[in-house]
Design brief:
The complex is a heterodimer of chains A (311) and B (705).
Chain A lengths: L13 H14 L3 E3 L13 H4 L8 E10 L15 E10 L5 H11 L9 E5 L2 E3 L4 E10 L2 E12 L2 E2 L5 E6 H9 L20 H19 L2 H22 E4 L2 E4 L2 H20 L5 H22 L9
Parallel strand pairs in A: 1-2
Antiparallel strand pairs in A: 2-3, 3-9, 4-6, 5-6, 6-7, 7-8, 7-9, 10-11
Helix pairs in contact in A: 6-7, 6-8, 7-8
Chain B lengths: L2 E8 L4 H21 L6 E7 L2 E7 L8 E9 L4 H11 L8 E3 L7 E8 L4 H14 L25 E9 L6 E2 L3 E2 L2 E4 L1 E3 L8 E3 L3 H10 L6 H18 L3 E2 L3 H8 L6 E6 L9 H12 L2 E4 L6 E9 L8 H26 L3 H4 L7 E3 L3 E2 H15 L7 H10 L7 H5 L6 H9 L4 H9 L14 H20 L13 H14 L6 H15 L11 H19 L4 H8 L7 H15 L2 H24 L15 H22 L3 H9 L1 H11 L7 H18 L11
Parallel strand pairs in B: 7-10
Antiparallel strand pairs in B: 1-3, 1-7, 2-3, 4-6, 5-6, 7-8, 9-10, 11-12, 13-15, 14-16, 15-16, 17-18
Helix pairs in contact in B: 1-3, 5-6, 7-8, 10-11, 10-15, 10-17, 11-14, 11-15, 13-14, 14-15, 15-16, 15-17, 16-18, 17-18, 18-19, 19-20, 20-23, 21-24, 21-25, 22-23, 22-24, 22-25
The chains are: A alpha+beta (311), B alpha+beta (705).
């Protein structure tokens, strides 16, 4: 780390911060993936987590996932609430026995010294109704602030995890704000430079927050979105149905990934419709159920693919 | 005698589960020991965020030997029976069995089985892994490599190591040899996660506890809690403030740290414009920190106390600064919510209730609020409340459910309504009702006394009761999802403690009317029977309530059995007077006399298949005791009747006492079943009159004893 130039140090720059995490997890044997190229509400939706958590094969990966929560938009006026932010996601299957230690070391790698800070593991049971998933774990606190989510997946997409995967999710902006000592996310130093060369998080994202808040709450075309939800749902089912093959002595699936893309799509469209306030309380439940049914069917297909099934 | 030390070391156990887990561990291990014939001297269990520990001391080193005689087949019995006997008893040859002579049934074999007691350490090696595998965590999970296979261990969070040692105080104890899912029991544990993470080797409980302490782990949760509270008090006191004590929070925090370090932080004074309760809820619920008050004003001050899990190298400066940042952000959210809430009048929120379903079969919140308003206005005159104030109070009482602050902190419902009502200039009684109408929440909660609050509280609870009764969602057994028992008890306490005269039946009928007005009739089950069924639910609740206060439940029955008793205050007064009367000799004897009369009547009524109603014929009296009883009955009837009419139950009871000598004398001197049928009938009618007279105060036949 001594070799790092000042502008790349995790406590100076947002990008340096991300790179430090990537480097740390790369050293633990994770494949460092790039973000999935679709809109999603959380890093967990990335097939590298949702689908790869299933089946007996080893899988260690880490990646940044831009996450979209249309309802959380505040037109750029709230110091730390946004409709678009970054999650850093780590998944290790099977969960290594020293995962807590690895997590604490990762905090040290981004400048959080456990002899100065009060780090806690506070009970938090995780559940995603849309993904048909649950797990047990904690929210990790640093000096009273929740900075990560730590979960041992027990079930994903309706399938029991065997073996169990450990999942870590870091709220990157929040952690970086803490490390950089700023109170407003838009004041984060993005590139670690000073003076005229400095680029802030606001320079990169403030306008986007304003525009997307407007879009999400006021203008997103609901007729189109209702249609898109239906189309994605139908397409998902169609691809799933088309993917099944009788291969030798067991069933095989050949299109789990494309089908799952449509599930991701449906989930995001639902989130947009929800933000537009056009889904009533009772309908809301049924939309969540519909997405969950897609996720479960995709999970079932995945465990019949090359990467998802037993060797 | 030897001691057992057991420790189960894991990743962080949820705070709320620790106390019960420690208790379960102690119970399961000691129960098993006793079941194995191993009686121990004492046991104590502990929990920290990362470990469950148990010490059981004074366990015998071995089980005692067991000798048992087992009876076998008769001598010369079929070979299959003999082979089976040998197998069951472990005998090598039948010649090893004793032969017992039985003169009636013939000779048969007896096996003497000697079961030598096993070494306790072997027994432990058998029972401990079973306990670990069957431990009753509320929620448990699988983890790691082994979770690939079915049947892998489930624990609350990953289990890392087990200590199990057994041995006498003076010697080096032995490790109890067992393993669970690849974890070998041993004598190694680990200290504080950050301050002393190294492995520690321990022998028995005494050095275990001491070595943990040296490794910055306070094993006993009670000790951690004491440290937290004492240090917190001291920090507050040093600045001239007072800690706002919070036992529940202290228990929770004690479950979040192994080495508690109390630290004080502060926040900007401008946040003190938020109500104290909101500040406290923000700091407590979200940050698990204590708040601090200024004894001079009794109000909160701008300080808070956090409990860290480490002694930080900078003395806690960084930790305090971090917590202050989070609390600042939380309080600015809370202030924003509060300020936002203040911008909207409570009544302006009400239309939203049209969209919110209270219960699928009972309509929206808006409909419910209208019902409560109507009912509160109706009840108002009965409880001395101003009708318009009660109506207004009911109109606004639920509005705060839609405020930002209550959305964030549901436990502040009602209280926020009061603040917002006051802020918009409502009458003080109207504002208070927002908070008070939820009361009493339980047997220990305060009962409101302001008439407007009482009217709304009664209307709210009775509407709930009638509503759920109407759709047949009554409490059954231990299930009472809508807390209807609590609501009924609330009504009882409101009425009795405020000495209110309210006909529950009339109010219930009126509430039902309000419900039927809007709901389809078919949704309602049997609206005819509902009010009386609800009344008997109240009777049951009242019985429980009075019994808890030490009154006799049979007296409650004796009063309700009179029928038409829907004035709970009078019921309570009657029960009270009756109880006092029955404590006197007059009361006891009159009860005995009345019972005797009732018993004779019951027998004769059965015999003759008729009742003996009607006034006795004075011309048929031929003994002075008959005439005396008849005149006593008449006197008592009119005196007791007049006293009851004045609701003076004590006087009614004293009047009743006058009956006693006449009844005693009657039974002493008069033979009821006279040979002359007319005289007999007349005497039975007289007995019936005794029963009738006592019914002025209670149905004596329901009274026990």
């Amino acid at each position: 780390m001594d070799a790092l130039p000042a502008h790349m140090r995790p406590e100076r720059s947002f990008q340096g911060f991300i790179l430090a995490l990537q480097r740390f997890w790369a050293e633990q044997g994770c494949v460092i993936l790039q973000p999935y190229d679709m809109e999603m509400g959380a890093g967990t939706f990335h097939p590298a987590t949702t689908l790869r958590a299933l089946g007996p094969k080893r899988w260690n990966a880490a990646y940044v996932q831009p996450s979209r929560r249309p309802k959380d938009g505040r037109y750029g006026e709230n110091p730390n609430r946004m409709q678009h932010y970054y999650q850093f996601q780590v998944i290790m299957k099977p969960s290594p026995s020293n995962l807590q230690d690895l997590y604490l070391k990762s905090l040290a790698a981004i400048g959080i010294d456990s002899s100065l800070h009060d780090i806690r593991f506070v009970e938090d049971d995780w559940e995603s109704p849309t993904l048909g998933a649950w797990g047990l774990g904690w929210e990790c606190w640093c000096d009273g602030m929740e900075v990560s989510q730590f979960t041992y997946f027990q079930q994903v997409a309706g399938v029991e995890c065997a073996p169990v995967a450990g999942e870590l999710t870091y709220g990157l902006e929040r952690l970086a704000m803490y490390v950089q000592g700023v109170d407003r996310v838009y004041d984060l130093n993005f590139n670690g430079r000073d003076g005229a060369d400095k680029v802030t998080y606001g320079d990169v994202f403030l306008q986007a927050e304003q525009e997307y808040s407007r879009h999400n709450f006021e203008y997103a075309d609901t007729t189109m979105l209702f249609e898109q939800f239906k189309m994605a749902e139908d397409a998902c089912k169609k691809y799933l149905a088309a993917g099944w093959r009788e291969g030798g002595n067991q069933k095989e699936h050949l299109m789990a990934l494309p089908a799952y893309d449509q599930c991701i799509k449906a989930s995001h469209v639902f989130n947009l419709l929800d933000a537009r306030g056009v889904i009533s309380v009772t309908e809301r439940q049924s939309y969540i159920m519909r997405v969950r049914e897609l996720a479960k069917a995709c999970g079932d297909a995945w465990v019949h693919t090359e990467a998802g099934r037993a060797v | 005698m030897p001691d057992l030390l057991l420790e189960l070391f894991s990743e962080e156990i949820p705070a709320r589960m620790q106390a019960k887990a420690a208790d379960d561990l102690r119970r399961m291990v000691t129960d098993k020991l006793v079941a194995e014939g191993l009686v121990y001297e004492g046991a104590k269990a502990f929990a920290t965020p990362r470990r469950l520990a148990l010490t059981v001391h004074g366990i015998p080193a071995r089980q005692s030997d067991l000798k048992e005689e087992r009876r076998g087949p008769r001598v010369g019995g079929p070979d299959a029976a003999i082979q089976g006997f040998l197998k069951a008893t472990g005998l090598a040859r039948i010649e090893d069995a004793k032969i017992q002579t039985d003169p009636k049934k013939g000779d048969f074999y007896i096996a003497l089985i000697e079961k030598p007691g096993r070494a306790t350490i072997e027994v432990l090696a058998e029972i401990l892994p079973v306990i670990v595998r069957t431990f009753p965590w509320p929620k448990s999970m699988r983890w790691g490599e082994r979770s690939a296979k079915s049947g892998s261990l489930s624990w609350v969070r990953p289990l890392h190591s087990i200590i199990a040692t057994f041995g006498p105080e003076t010697e080096e104890p032995d490790v109890v040899k067992f393993s669970v899912d690849g974890i070998e029991a041993g004598q190694t544990t680990f200290g504080h996660r950050f301050m002393a993470p190294a492995a520690i080797s321990v022998r028995r409980f005494e050095d275990y506890e001491a070595k943990l302490k040296a490794a910055k782990v306070v094993l006993d949760p009670q000790a951690r809690k004491d440290i937290i509270l004492e240090d917190a008090k001291e920090l507050a006191f040093a600045q001239g403030f007072e800690l706002v004590e919070d036992q529940v929070l202290a228990d929770e925090v004690a479950g979040l740290v192994e080495w508690p370090v109390a630290l004080m932080g502060s926040f900007d004074k401008e946040f003190l414009s938020i109500p104290d309760e909101v500040i406290r809820a923000t700091i407590r619920n979200n940050q698990k920190c204590f708040v601090v008050s200024d004894p001079k004003t009794g109000k909160l001050t701008n300080k808070f106390i956090l409990t860290a899990n480490i002694e930080a190298t900078d003395g806690g400066k960084t930790i305090i600064a971090g917590n202050e940042r989070v609390i600042r952000a939380r309080l600015s959210d809370a202030k924003f919510f509060y300020d936002t809430d203040l911008k909207t009048k409570l009544e302006a929120r009400l239309p939203k209730f049209d969209q919110i379903v209270f219960h699928e079969k009972l309509g929206t919140q808006a409909e419910r609020i209208k019902r409560i308003e109507r009912l509160a206005a109706e009840i108002a005159p009965l409880v001395g409340a101003d009708v318009e104030k009660a109506r207004r109070a009911a109109h606004l009482a639920k509005a705060d459910l839609l405020t930002e602050v209550v959305g964030e902190f549901p436990e502040l419902q009602g209280l926020m309504g009061k603040y917002y009502a006051l802020a918009q200039g409502e009458d003080a009684s109207v504002a208070a009702a927002s908070e008070e109408h939820y009361k009493p929440q339980g047997p220990a909660d305060r009962v409101p006394t302001d008439p407007a609050s009482v009217a709304v509280a009664l209307a709210d609870k009775i509407d709930t009761l009638v509503g759920f009764w109407a759709i047949n969602e009554k409490p059954t057994g231990s299930k009472d999802p809508y807390a209807l028992r609590r609501a009924a008890l609330g009504v009882i306490r409101l009425i009795v403690e405020n000495a209110l005269r309210v006909s529950i039946l009339n109010v219930a009928i009126s509430a039902l009317g309000g419900l039927l007005d809007k709901r389809p009739r078919e949704a309602i089950v049997d609206s005819q029977k509902l009010p009386s069924e609800l009344l008997s639910f109240f009777a049951d609740r009242l019985k429980v309530q009075l019994r808890d206060q030490g009154a006799r439940h049979d007296l409650v029955d004796a009063v309700f059995s009179l029928g038409g008793q829907d004035d709970l205050l009078l019921v309570v007064r009657r029960v009270d007077a009756l109880g006092k009367f029955l404590d006197t000799d007059d009361g006891k004897n009159l009860l005995a006399g009345t019972k005797r009369a009732s018993n004779i009547l019951a027998i004769e009524e059965k015999k003759d298949k008729r009742t003996f109603d009607g006034t006795p014929d004075a011309g048929l009296y031929n003994l002075p005791e008959e005439r005396a009883l008849a005149s006593a009955i008449n006197q008592v009837k009119s005196e007791a009747g007049a006293a009851v009419a004045k609701e003076d139950f004590a006087s009614a009871m004293s009047a009743m006492a006058k009956l006693r000598p006449a009844v005693d004398a009657f039974f002493d001197k008069v033979k009821v079943n006279d040979d002359e049928p007319k005289v007999r009938e007349n005497r039975l009618k007289l007995l019936n009159e005794i029963r009738a007279a006592t019914r002025a105060v209670a149905d004596f036949s329901k009274i026990e004893g």
